[in-house]
Each structure stands twice: as structure tokens, then as C-alpha cells.
Write a structure and sequence with these properties.
Strand order of the largest sheet: 1-5-6-11-10-9-7-8
Distance between the termini: 45 Å
Low-confidence stretches: none
Helix content: 40-55%
Strand content: 15-25%
CATH topology of the largest domain: BirA Bifunctional Protein, domain 2
Largest sheet: 8 strands, mixed
Structural class: alpha+beta
Shape: elongated
Number of helices: 18
CATH class of the largest domain: Alpha Beta
Number of strands: 16
CATH architecture of the largest domain: 2-Layer Sandwich
Mean pLDDT: 90
Length: 438
RNA sequence: GUGGGUGUAGCUCAGCUGGUUAGAGCGCCGGAUUGUGGUUCCGGAGGUCGUGGGUUCGAAACCCAUCAUCCACCCCA
């Protein structure tokens, strides 16, 4: 039968896994360096936990699970695969009121979206989230920016930009453009978000189509007049916007100052009032990281969501967090040649000379492993030639042969396949020799 | 969800306007005096031409459907 992967999914063969594991390891080290603690949650949640959090577009992308028994036959749904790691966190916070706040957690796990696959986009993918719960201070937002900045740096990214905006600024801009309700506000944001793609004229066209009046749009554009730098942009916006927008501007200024004090390179930060992020639950600052070289959209995104936990419990807990998209990071790193080539996990292949000599080979393998050397022992005993080919094809550096001569002397032949040199030494010494070559 | 492209050996692809036994490179397997690879030489295996219909004397090539995949839009990590 013809076999296919489910759309938008991938197998990770050993070479992929080794590269990905290294990326995850780096990210995890950075997360812990900032004091974030690990958390995991079930991959599926009750459906009502997830619905109503992601907007109409997002809602369609939730993978739903049919009920057991007759309910499944009737097409009823009671559970769904998690869409992100933020809503599960909010649920955990609501269910565990004794968690000491502020609480920092990281979560690296798979999420699922019934999206149409594209470059760097899958239906099953990993996110690496850090969030701080229980702090309304701009310092918490700044810490998230700092951890994001550090992680991207340590992964080796050179040309990335973190764009910043605030939901309150966007709300005022939408209002200026004539948005009357959250529906038209969202409509405005969707159009505005395309600015760098379709240009001002294009956005004007879209807004007109969406029913925005030309003179109102003009008012919004005035507030968006480009300024020399972030400080000027914030000052100018503060001047043009209403009270809500002013609040956002002031807050964003504090976040930015704190982030820079935490070591974030100011050249990497850009206040961009046209940055719109779709998720419904954001309330304050929103941010997004992009790389300029391969076009894969954003590689990380986040923001503040002060109302989400309150949806699940009486007590509101202000939260802010950022999510790194592992899939896109790996895609970009692969394209830029930032991932090292993975060799075999084992360092040495112990060949099997013949069935008669099997015991000697196994003893040699034991000695190597006892010495801490990652060792493959050839399963079987085809011609030595083929075992050599196997070692070479898999990229081994070291190879061990134990034939009758070696066995008689109580040694093994250790060969370096790169240089071609070989010597007869005791198995334990062979182990030491390999270890010192690491 | 909308529009467009692609689908031929394990991999990358060639097969002109339909015509007899479908090709190449790489890879794979075997061999070149019987304890040694990676180079070279010789030989070999391997394809229901995505799948199902249709047009035709005849289709990998034309038409329809379907599945898969890629690109753009939408949205997003």
C-alpha cells in the first residue's frame, strides 16, 4: 500500500533529531538562566477550555476530538488538541491558586493547528514558551524580551529584529480610523498588518473595501507618520493618541528602557505601531521577532494577556510571555547553514571477525562502553569488508577489529578511518585513546 | 478556503508535436588471489510511468476525477 504522512506532519530521522535537540538544549539553557521553570500539560484539553480564545480564524484551526461511544458516532466533540501553550498555562494558573506569584515557567512541546502547510509551517509543531504570571510590571515584559534576545543570540542569529507595539495603541488607531466595535477594530488591524507587504496604497484599498471612510483613515495615517527613532515615535504617538493609547505608549517606553537595561541591543528593537498580532487575548504590549534573510514569517511572538486567567477563575492574574517557533528557527538555521552536520551517535564500530571470534568482539565492546565510549557492535558477521563499508558510510572515525591474532595477544586493532593509521592495543587503552581524541 | 505548478527506478531528473523491449547520473548489490573502508575498473539488480476512469489502432505523454506535494493569497510559530 502507498503510505503517506498526514498532511503537515513530519518524521524526524536521527540527523534531524540531533540538530533539533541541540537547538532545544540551547533554548532551554537560556530559559533556565533567566529563572524559568519547566511545566508540561496534557496535549489535549476539554474543548471549552480552548474555544473563544483565538478569534474566528484561530478557532477554525483547532483540532477537535470526537467523543467516545455514541457521541463519536453522532459527531459530538468534547476534547481538542492544544492550539498553543499559553491557554493551557492560564488553565493551570486558574486551577492552582497556591502557585506563588510571580511565577516563571517555560514549556517546550508540540501544539497542533489544522492549518494549510507552507514553508516553515506545519500542522504539528513545537513551540518554546516562556511566561511570567502575576506581574503587572513592565519589568516582566522586559524580561521576556531579554530572554528572547538572549536565546536568538545564543542560537547564533545575526540579523533579527524584535518589533514592539501595544494593543492599546492599536485600539486607538483603529478608533481614529473609525472602528466602532471589536469586529471592525480587528478588521482594521488585519489590513494595517499588511503594510510592509502591500504598501500604504494597498492598505488604503483594503480599508476602503472594509468600509472605512477615507478621511478617518487619513487621521490614523497621521498618527503613523514615521519618526526618526523609537523615542521620537513614542513621543509622537503619545501626542496624537487618546488616553488609552497614551497609556500604551508610556508602558511601552518603560518596557523598552528596562529591556535595554537588561542588555537587549537597542539596534534589535523597533517600536512599530503597525505591528498587529491576531490572537484575541492580548491586552498590552505585543512583540514579534523576524529574521530578514529567509522569508518564513516571524520566528517568535508574544505579548501581555492580563485577562486570560480571569476567564477561568475569579482571580485575574496578569501575564506576559513569548513563544519561539522551533520549526521556523530550525528551518532558518538549516537554510543559513547554522546547524552543524550530525555524525553518528556512536564513536566506534566494533567489527565481528567471525562467529568464532564473536566473544572477543563483545568483550572489546564491553570494555569500550565501560570506559564511557559510545560503541556500536556490528550485529552479525558478514565479510569484514562490508563492516568497514558500513563504518565508513555512517561516518565513523574509529573502528575495532578483533581477529584470531589479536585474540591470541589479548589486544584489539584500533583503526582511525580518517587517517588510515592502526595499532594493536588493549581494549581499555583503545577506549582511553578514543576519549582523548574527542 | 481561493488560484497556479508538479507527480517517471532508493534519490535528482530526461523522455521532442501520442507509435514497437521507458533512459541517465548518483546510490545500492556483487567481483577485481580468500583479515580493511573511503579512490579506480568490471558486472548486476531495481520502474503497476501517483491512483481510477476516458479518448485512440496505439498513451508515461491528450481529457476528467482523485490523492499527494510545492508556490502565491489568507492566516500564523
Amino acid at each position: 500500500m502507498a503510505v503517506h504522512l498526514a498532511k503537515g506532519t513530519r518524521d524526524f530521522l536521527p540527523a534531524d533529531m540531533l540538530a533539533r535537540r541541540q537547538v532545544v538544549h540551547t533554548v532551554q539553557q537560556v530559559f533556565e538562566r533567566f529563572g524559568f521553570e519547566p511545566l508540561d500539560t496534557p496535549v489535549f484539553e476539554r474543548i471549552e477550555t480552548l474555544t473563544g480564545k483565538y478569534g474566528d480564524e484561530g478557532e477554525k484551526l483547532i483540532y477537535k476530538i470526537l467523543k467516545r461511544g455514541e457521541g463519536g458516532v453522532r459527531g459530538e466533540v468534547d476534547q481538542a488538541l492544544r492550539y498553543d501553550l499559553t491557554v493551557p498555562l492560564a488553565r493551570v494558573l486558574a486551577m492552582n491558586p497556591d502557585i506563588r506569584l510571580p511565577f516563571r515557567r517555560y514549556h517546550i512541546a508540540k501544539v497542533w493547528r489544522a492549518d494549510r502547510p507552507a514553508k516553515g509551517r506545519f500542522r504539528e509543531f513545537f513551540q518554546c514558551d516562556v511566561d511570567i504570571a502575576g506581574s503587572s510590571s513592565p519589568l516582566a515584559d522586559a524580561e521576556c524580551l531579554a530572554v528572547l534576545h538572549t536565546a536568538l543570540n545564543e542560537l547564533g542569529f545575526k540579523g533579527f529584529t524584535i518589533r514592539l507595539n501595544d494593543r492599546r495603541i492599536l485600539a486607538d488607531l483603529a478608533a481614529a480610523a473609525g472602528a466602532k466595535d471589536s469586529q471592525s477594530e480587528k478588521s482594521f488591524l488585519v489590513a494595517l498588518d499588511k503594510l510592509d507587504k502591500i504598501g500604504r496604497a494597498g492598505v488604503d484599498g483594503e480599508l476602503a473595501e472594509r468600509g472605512f471612510a477615507a478621511d478617518a483613515i487619513e487621521t490614523a495615517w497621521e498618527a503613523l507618520t514615521p519618526q526618526a527613532d523609537d523615542a521620537a515615535t513614542l513621543a509622537y504617538l503619545g501626542d496624537k493618541l487618546g488616553n488609552r493609547g497614551k497609556e500604551g505608549v508610556a508602558y511601552l517606553g518603560q518596557v523598552r528602557d528596562a529591556a535595554i537595561a537588561l542588555g537587549v541591543d537597542p539596534a534589535r528593537l523597533t517600536v512599530d505601531p503597525t505591528l498587529a498580532r491576531g490572537l484575541d487575548y492580548y491586552t498590552g504590549p505585543v512583540f514579534e521577532a523576524t529574521v530578514d534573510e529567509p522569508k518564513v514569517g516571524s520566528i517568535a511572538g508574544g505579548g501581555r494577556y492580563d485577562g486570560l486567567v480571569g476567564v477561568f477563575s475569579k482571580q485575574d492574574i496578569p501575564c506576559v510571555g513569548v513563544s519561539l517557533g522551533l520549526e521556523r528557527i530550525v528551518t532558518v538555521m538549516a537554510e543559513l547553514g547554522m546547524l552543524p552536520e550530525a555524525g553518528p551517535v556512536a564513536e566506534v564500530l566494533v567489527t565481528v571477525f567471525s562467529d568464532d571470534q564473536l566473544g572477543d568482539s563483545l568483550a572489546a565492546a564491553n570494555a569500550l562502553r565501560a570506559a564511557g565510549v559510545r560503541t556500536e557492535v556490528y550485529a552479525g558477521s558478514p565479510k569484514l569488508k562490508n563492516q568497514f563499508k558500513h563504518a565508513n558510510a555512517r561516518g565513523y572515525t574509529w573502528l575495532v577489529v578483533v581477529g584470531p591474532d589479536e585474540a591470541a595477544e589479548g589486544v584489539v586493532t584500533l583503526k582511525n578511518l580518517r587517517t588510515g593509521e592502526q595499532q594493536r592495543i588493549a581494549a581499555a587503552q583503545a577506549g582511553a585513546r578514543i576519549l582523548e581524541s574527542r
